[in-house]
């Protein structure tokens, strides 16, 4: 009986993981810019402030305040392949990266065209 219960728990966990990944994908594909962050993360604040300063109104998902936050964070771990999945920035339905990628894109001049292409900027 113990083995059966463990198998059910594994199946439920896998199902929750798939749902969280689908939730991340759905949010990313239905919004021009999505930021998955934690409310107390300083790097998340940097990402949000940069986007706001450019005139972008991103969809922000605070994982520490979301009911499925832990499961979505696990999905972001898999998606990003890094030890620090938050903040995670999606532009035009595609995973851009974290704070380093966002800042590098801004510095090298590729961020604004990317945001315009995604419909997040009109100017």
From TrEMBL:
It is found in: Cytoplasm. InterPro entries: GlrX-like_pln_2, Glutaredoxin, Thioredoxin-like_sf. PROSITE patterns: GLUTAREDOXIN_2. Its main location: cytoplasm. Keywords: Cytoplasm, Redox-active center. GO terms for cellular component: cytoplasm. Residues 33-95 form the Glutaredoxin domain. The keyword Hydrolase does not apply. It holds the Pfam family Glutaredoxin. Belongs to the glutaredoxin family. CC-type subfamily. This is Glutaredoxin domain-containing protein. It comes from Arachis hypogaea.
